[in-house]
Amino acid sequence: MPTVIPATEPRLSPRQIARFLWLCIRVRYLSRRMERASVRVGRLGVDKAGGRLLYFADRWLACHAEAAELLQCAEPPEVAEVRKLFETRPAAPVAMAEEI
What we know:
The protein is built from five helices and no strands. By secondary structure, the protein is an all-alpha fold. Helix 1 (14-44) runs antiparallel to helix 3 (52-71). The longest helix has 31 residues, at 14-44.
């Protein structure tokens, strides 16, 4: 016989449900844009392709963070992996650009 009563999952308000659905749509859109940007980087190279891939990946991570906060759960493993890549990437060489 269990000694602890299981906690119920948090219920979302209609506004939170609408926000979550919007985040799901946005994540799907950003995933498609990241795929296209990745193909562009593969075709043109990192220097010529611009920062679209990083821009969309940053927005994608922000949407996942908001959804995880809304649902009060952990982010999916692939999101944690991308976030780890963003945290370990080297900073842009700003000092070199200022010297030129």
